[in-house]
Every structure is written in structure tokens, then in C-alpha cells.
Amino acid sequence: MKKSVRFYSGAELVAKAAIDAGCRFFGGYPITPSSEIAEYMSVHMPRVGGTYIQMEDEIGAMGSIIGASLTGVKSLTATSGPGFSLKQENIGYAYMAEVPCVVCNVMRGGPSTGLPTALAQADIMQAKWGTHGDHPVIALTPAYLEEIYELTIKAFNFAETYRMPIMLLLDEVIAHLSAAIELPDKELLVIKNRRRPTVPPEKYFPYDTAYGDVPPMANFFEGYRYHVTGLSHDKTGFPTTDPDLVQADQERHLRKVKAHINEIIDYEYYMMKDAEIIIFAYGSTARAARVAVDNARKLGIRVGMMRFRVIWPLPEAEILKLCSKAKAIIVPEMNMGQLSDVIERYAADRTKIMRINHVGGVPIHPTDVLNVIKEAL
Amino acid sequence: MAFEYEKYLRMDKIPHLWCPGCGIGVVLKAMLRSVENVGWEKNDIAFVSGIGCTSRAPGYIDCNTLHTTHGRALSFATGIKLAQPAKHVVIFSGDGDATAIGGNHFIHACRRNIDMTLVVVNNNTYGMTGGQHSPTTPIGYKASTTVYGNIDPTFDICLLAKAAGASYVARATVNKGKMLEKYITKGFEHKGFSVIVATANCHTQFGRKNKMSDPISVRKWIESREIPIEKARTMKAAELNDKIITGEFITHEEETTWWENYNHPIHEYTEAYQTIRDKAQERK
């Protein structure tokens, strides 16, 4: 079989994977450091018969992908910190109306305009709590180029499976990194599509829980003629203020992720078998941490790493188990402790937590991590 | 024979939430009659709206209906139309929704000249939130946020749409339902972005704060200010202060001078995008 090895950048891989996952609509707005994704889409979307549009602003870009997805077309937008902030109201709409779509955020320093050209992992919490109200969240944090391709496809599959917007969080380093990589055989990709109604239009309800927590979704213009709103609604899709219905619906939304957590959580163990010191890491920071683990092992230090490929939801049970047995926990991240704060809740009185928080726009160096490993002894 | 509105309405959602005598009802009727006039299939139409009193209209229509976020209806609609160019997309918006919070989407939808129809119900106020002043509240008038009289200059939504590139622009008042129907029908038939402004009464919020607390008073006030566009062309600008100019602002049915339409649209957007697909696929 002919191997397909080519030079790709991280941004290009997001776009390529999206197209391979069946995405046929991209609505964007230029923003550093994510613009390359839009540029690639503007070339390739029309080639595959899809649509690329540069909208008037970030808010409009988010609206446009929700509209396209409602007609059955898988949709993507890409942005960075400030644009991610602007999109939040419509991201909330996609949660509320249960419209599948993928939002890629190539994170940069913040708050505000911050560090547009430097790397950061500044939006870990914005991805979780950026829009108002409670909602489930799935956010993916690839660390390698091959993984960007794999996890972008996974993001689309999650969107279609759970009928919700999915957050794909890259950092500037991996989005701009280029290397020759081999992509998986397209024939072997697992591509999921939203569950369609099996009932005739007169018996269809867009939020019918009779079919489980993720109701089948009809596309616009296929004869189902239903109503979609961001207001709290009942199973018919029309607004309701009935406290019991609203409560039950919010609980169902959260259950979509909670009840399937084992199918969603995704992490990798590195040198964990006898590890006494454990690093929790994600994204490009995990690459530095991995080198630090190798170097510490050479010194005879029993250290390992748990790397999150999916950062939300976290594998709570596994983290709790590790916190109970670890001598120390180290969390390196390119923000002031957005994940560390969460890990600290698990660590509590069980073990000590050591943070490495860099927000100056330069990567965390393996030596920075190694020094903390030595301190932890 | 009487028009069968029931054919297009979700009768189980009636009664509607609008106040008795609200102008939006006239606009909805004109809209449904226009759908009948052009013979569109219900399955092929998406009615999209933002937030506000007017934006509740799609919920009552038996089509694909989408009630989005405040001001953003046009962006959702753009996604729908680009993804399904053969289908019909109609947007309902109020004056605040379309020209304040949604102003950016409004001018850019006009600029793209994408084949959709936007109907703006202009009742000079934010009715749903309690009668605050909007970009079309006339100077000197009162709102719950301009108790000393409004000083904010107003937008003329038709001139705004025309300047931004919309290729069919018209205005009628709810006093003249037939005229409204005619313009909306023409908007539906027109290939390109159409904007129809319906000047309407909100007696509950706007009227009540301005000594016109019943529908008839506001409608008489609207009538007293209405100037047909043919007549307006012969008048001086100062004479048209506070007036509601009705008629067709741009139709593209006849040759116009550059000044009358210096922003003449070169193409309809979904058709133009198809040429991009063709080019991209040739180069593949």
C-alpha cells in the first residue's frame, strides 16, 4: 500500500482532518494564530464542493456554522482567545439548541489582546465556563501533529454523537509546527454521523428523550419543520418556563457527557508503572514534560506523566487514584494554574501539588520541569 | 375567498404573545400571503429571527424555524443559505435587533447581496424589554431610558440597506397591509438581498410613553408622517425630518444613475460562490 507521507503544519492538519471527517462548511474570521486554518479552508472547501466564508466578525462566524449544521452540513470555525470570547454567546446557543459543530481555538496569551503571536494555554477554563449557564463540555488538547489529525476527527465524531459543540484546543506551538507525517488510511477512519429520526414528521419531536439523552436530529428542509430556540424549551422545541421541565432538560444535557464519560475521557500514561512523582500535562507543555521525565529517569528518579488528550471531562476516578498514591503531583501549564486549581481539589490532603505556571509567551523548558521534579524529592 | 392563514400557522401555538392591536400581526399576515403569492413549499423555507417581539414570529409559522441570539439572525441565516442555496431563507427582525446589536451583520448581509429576504419591523422601541429607546426612536420622543426626550439621531434603515448594497429595498407601514404584501412578495421574487421595512405600532411601550397609548393613535401618528417616495423626491431634506418615506428605494428593474445606486451589486453571493467552487475544482 502506498504510504502518504507529507509535510504538514498543525493548522493544516485541523483543516485536512475536518474535511476528511466530512466537514463541508467553514465560517471564520481572521485572527492570529489561527488564520492558517481559514486560509487552508478557503482553498480546499470549494474543491470538495463545500463552503468557506469569511464572516464580518467572530460572532457571525459562530452563527453561520450553527446555521449550516442545522441543515445537515458538518461545520467548523477556528479562532483564538479574543475571538473565542466573542463566540461564547453563540456557543451557548449551540449547547442549548443541541447543534453539532466544532470550535477550534488556537490559544494565545491573554486576557484581552494579550500576546497574539506567542503561545499560551490560556483558555482551558474559558472552554469550560466561557458561556453563561451550565452545560456539558468536551474539549480536546492534542500535543502532536498526528494527534491533531486524529483528535480533530474525534471532535467531529463527538459533536455528531452527542449533538453539541466541541472545543478543540491547540496552542500556538503545535498549530505552527510543521513536520513530515504519515496520515492514517482514509478508508480506515471511523466517521460518525448524527442519529436521524426514524419517525414520520408528524410524530417527530426535536428533543424527544424517548430515544435516550441524545435525541435524533432532523435537518432543516427535510420535511420535519420543527422549531429551534435558545430559550429553555420542552421536547417539541418550543419555549417553556415549567420549572420541572427546565430542570430535567438541564440535567439531561449534563448527563450526555457524564453518562458516557468512559467513552469520552482520553489520556496517555508515560513511565507510570513505578512512578512516585506524577506530572499532569496537556498540549505542547506535555512534550517538554516528557523530556523532563526521560532526563529524571536517567537520574534514577521515579517520575511518570499522565497526559490528557481530552481535557474536559477529566478522568476524575483515575486522577483521584493517582493523587492518593503519589508522593507529589506536578502540573506544568502555560497559564496561571487553570488545571492546577482543579487538580488541587483531587489532591487535597492526599499529596502535595507543585505548579509550573508560565504566561510570558515562551515555552516551558524541560529543565524547568526537571528542576521541580528534583524539588519534589 | 378568504385567505387561509391556518395553512401556514402552527395553530396549536396560537394565541400569540403580542399585545392586542400590535403591528407585528399585520406584517406576519403580509408575509404569509407573500409565501402563497410566490408558491413556495413550506418544507423549503427557513424563517430565522433574533430576539425581541418581532423575533417571536417564526415560532408561529409552520416551516423550518430558527429563533437565534439577539442581533445574530442574519449570520445563522447566511450559514443556512450558503449550505443550501436552493432553499428559501427569510429573516424577521426588529429595529433594535437588526440595526443596533445586529448592525454589523445587517450591513454585511446587504454587502454580500446574498439571496435572502429580511423583514424589519420598525416600531421605534425595544418592546419586549420595556420600551427602551432604539436606533429608530425619533429625536425628542420618550422611552423608558429617555424620560427627558431622546437625543440619539435615528437610522433610516432603508437608506442604510441601500448604501450597504442590498439590491431590493422598500418600506411600507402597517396601515397599508396590501402595500406591505406587494413589497415582501417582490422581495421574495428578487434574486439578491432584499430588505423590507415595515413601520409598525407599539402602543404598549412606545405609544404609551408618548401620549398614544392605543393602536389607533400610533397608527394615525404613523399615517400623519408618511410621505410616498415619489413625493419625497420633490421635497427638501429639511421638510423630510421626522417623515416616514414609503415605497421602493431600489429595485434594479430599471437603469439608474450612479448616484441613485452607486453601490450597484455585481452578483448574487451564492451564485458567485459556485463560480469559486468551479474554479477550485478545475485547478484540482
| Count of individual beta strands of chain A | 16
**CATH architecture identity of chain B:** 3-Layer(aba) Sandwich
The name of the CATH topology of chain B is: Rossmann fold
Unreliable spans of chain A are none
Strand/helix succession of chain A: EHEHEHEHEEHEHEHEEHHEEHEEHEHEH
Show unreliable segments of chain B: none
Evaluate the radius of gyration of chain B.
19 Å
Write structural notes for this entry.
With 377 residues, chain A is α/β, with parallel strands linked by helices. Chain A has 13 helices and 16 strands. Chain A has three domains: 5-188, Rossmann fold; 201-262, no CATH class; 267-376, Rossmann fold, CATH 3.40.50.920. In chain A, strands 2, 3, 4, 5, 6, 7, 8 and 14 form an eight-stranded mixed sheet that branches. A five-stranded mixed sheet of chain A has the order 11-13-12-15-16, with helices on both faces. In chain A, 54% of the residues are buried. Chain B has helices at residues 24-38, 73-83, 95-101, 103-112, 157-164, 177-189, 203-207, 215-225, 229-232, 269-283, and strands at residues 45-49, 64-67, 88-94, 117-122, 125-126, 132-133, 168-173, 194-199, 226-228, 244-250. Chain B is an alpha/beta fold and 284 residues long. In chain B, 35% of the residues lie in helices and 17% in strands. The termini of chain B are far apart. The model of chain B has no long low-confidence stretch (mean pLDDT 95).
In short:
By secondary structure, chain A is an alpha/beta fold. Chain A has helices at 10-20, 35-47, 58-70, 81-97, 124-129, 145-162, 172-176, 243-258, 261-264, 283-298, 316-325, 338-347, 366-376, and strands at 5-9, 25-28, 51-54, 75-79, 101-109, 115-119, 139-140, 165-171, 178-182, 227-229, 267-270, 277-281, 303-308, 310-312, 328-333, 352-357.
